[in-house]
Write a structure and sequence with these properties.
The protein is α+β, with helices and mostly antiparallel strands. It is 24% helix and 24% strand. The strands form 3 sheets. It has a 6-stranded mixed sheet. It has a 5-stranded mixed sheet with strand order 1-2-14-6-3, covered by helices on one side. A 3-stranded antiparallel sheet has the order 10-12-11.
């Protein structure tokens, strides 16, 4: 019997079809075994297609997944109708007010953020790696939602599975980049081994969201690196010397 897809949900998005998925419930095998949805992961196309089908069915059955070609940018696109995988625009966030679509973000340590303004009927999804986060991808997402009629104070945002501070070692140059942008960012770094720091990416993203005036912000507190049977992790795969790594998907839609 096939294992069910594991769907992690956020209370702040209750009533909105959404889910932060992991690797449980898929058909991929080998080092990417499970629910790998990465088109560029080197996995079999048929397996990835089946995994994406299962992912959609677990969140909003019958709805097509709309995703972008992620490039670690702050760019956000507004979705009016679905497109094919070959037509994916280069961006790292999506928003829509159209029912029956599933906005999808793919991650493997970076921070997935799902947004919803229930009153306005506007949703969003953002891929916030450190480059996109410091570049303002969440700010661009909020602005795009506002253009569709959302209000900041009415938007709820949830941060899904991402690499946690205990698992995210960075060097002094990395820390300096954030400190130069804003000296208050020092609070997201804890001293590690000599000339290295532990960076709290989800806390940084949450602070950006709160600073933007979002009504509700919640973090699931799930560390992709630390739980290999539940989540894919680029950094863990790299540390293990694995030849490939899988990707998980976060989805949100309007019924």
């Amino acid at each position: 019997m096939a294992k069910p897809v594991e769907v992690n949900r956020a209370e702040v998005l209750a009533g909105i079809p959404h889910g932060f998925l992991g690797r449980r419930g898929g058909v991929s095998t080998g080092v990417v075994a499970g629910l790998n949805v990465g088109l560029g992961s080197g996995d079999e196309e048929a397996a990835v297609a089946e995994n994406r089908k299962r992912a959609a069915a677990a969140v909003l059955p019958g709805a097509p997944i709309v995703a972008c070609y992620q490039i670690h940018s702050p760019d956000c696109v507004t979705v009016g109708e679905p497109w094919s995988d070959a037509e994916r625009p280069q961006a790292d966030a999506l928003v829509t007010d159209r029912p029956g679509l599933l906005l999808g973000i793919v991650t493997a340590d970076c921070t997935p953020v799902l947004f919803a303004d229930r009153e306005a009927g506007v949703i969003g999804a953002a891929h916030a790696g450190w480059k996109g986060a410091i570049g303002g991808v969440t700010d661009r997402t909020i602005e795009a939602m506002e253009a569709l009629g959302a209000r900041r104070s009415a938007i709820s945002a949830a941060i899904g599975p991402t690499i946690a501070q205990a698992s995210y070692e960075v060097d002094e140059g990395f820390r300096e980049r954030f400190f130069s942008a804003d000296s208050a960012n020092e609070r997201f770094f804890e001293a590690g081994k000599p000339d290295h720091w532990q960076f709290d990416l989800p806390a940084y993203v949450a602070a950006r969201l709160a600073g933007a005036g979002i009504g509700q912000v919640a973090t699931l507190g799930l560390d992709t690196y630390a739980v290999p049977d539940r989540f894919y992790s680029f950094r863990r795969a790299t540390h293990r010397g694995e030849p490939a790594y899988g990707r998980q998907m976060s989805l949100i839609g309007l019924p």
